[in-house]
């Protein structure tokens, strides 16, 4: 199965072409950016498809990170995935950003828990906790950053762009986190593997929002109706 993989959930605009039979990224590109995903994404996808020497008609599936993450970034990536899927007549599947961060830790099967956490600002994080075998102990939620300390004990993997911050909060006298991966965005290879394994019926390309946006409409700007 050949997949186009898209990630604009966080501070990166990225895409790749993945071949499941060889478990290989045929081409990939990632540009660090906080804003401007809408302008950068489609030219980036065109370059990646060209580097992979792949035509859109050869794709079997489009996988896209659906959050949690940036409200604007998620809309850009998901809209592109849906549009390409519609044009190609192929399914688009959504991949949780938290699951993509946790996947390489779970695959190593070296720790009893994996805490995946993404910066949600104001001392909060988007967090999910996985037990042995990848079973969920805490479903994806918007929580205070220090809530990660509720899962201290045993061997713990930390993953996500606030892994280092959580490690710095670790209580004295407790075993240090087994390992932490503080990448700014999930690995495209793992987004691809999760996208390949996903069921289009249960993993739609729809945004996973865990809280309301910071920006709110101003009541005084409303035009009075007659």
Automatic annotation (TrEMBL):
Segments forming domain Gcp-like: 34-132
Highest taxon above the source species: Bacteria
Compositional bias annotation for Basic and acidic residues: 213-226
Gene3D superfamilies, A to Z: 3.30.420.40
GO CC terms, sorted: cytosol
Pfam families named among the record's database cross-references: TsaD
Chain residue ranges for the region called Disordered: 203-226
A Gene Ontology BP annotation from the UniProt entry: tRNA threonylcarbamoyladenosine modification
NCBIfam families the record matches: T6A_YeaZ (TIGR03725)
Family matches, as PANTHER family: TRNA N6-ADENOSINE THREONYLCARBAMOYLTRANSFERASE, TRNA THREONYLCARBAMOYLADENOSINE BIOSYNTHESIS PROTEIN TSAB
Protein's UniProt name: tRNA threonylcarbamoyladenosine biosynthesis protein TsaB
Organism name: Variibacter gotjawalensis
């Amino acid at each position: 199965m050949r997949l186009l993989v898209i990630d604009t959930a966080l501070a990166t605009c990225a895409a790749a072409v993945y071949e499941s039979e060889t478990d290989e990224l045929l081409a990939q590109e990632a540009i660090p950016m906080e804003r401007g995903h809408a302008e950068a994404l489609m030219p980036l996808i065109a370059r990646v498809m060209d580097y992979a020497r792949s035509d859109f008609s050869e794709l079997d599936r489009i996988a896209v990170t659906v959050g949690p993450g940036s409200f604007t970034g998620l809309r850009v990536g998901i809209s592109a995935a849906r549009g390409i899927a519609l044009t190609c007549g192929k399914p688009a599947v959504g991949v949780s950003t938290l699951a993509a961060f946790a996947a390489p830790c779970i695959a190593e099967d070296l720790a009893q828990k994996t805490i995946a956490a993404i910066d949600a600002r104001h001392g909060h994080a988007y967090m999910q906790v996985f037990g042995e075998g990848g079973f969920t102990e805490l479903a994806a939620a918007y929580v205070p950053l220090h809530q990660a300390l509720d899962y201290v004990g045993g061997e713990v993997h930390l993953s996500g762009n606030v892994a280092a911050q959580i490690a710095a909060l670790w209580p004295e006298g407790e075993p240090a986190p087994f390992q932490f991966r503080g990448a700014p965005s999930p690995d495209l290879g793992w987004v691809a593997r999760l996208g390949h394994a996903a069921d289009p019926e249960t993993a739609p390309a729809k945004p996973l929002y865990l809280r309301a946006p910071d920006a709110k409409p101003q009541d005084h700007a409303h035009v009075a109706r007659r």
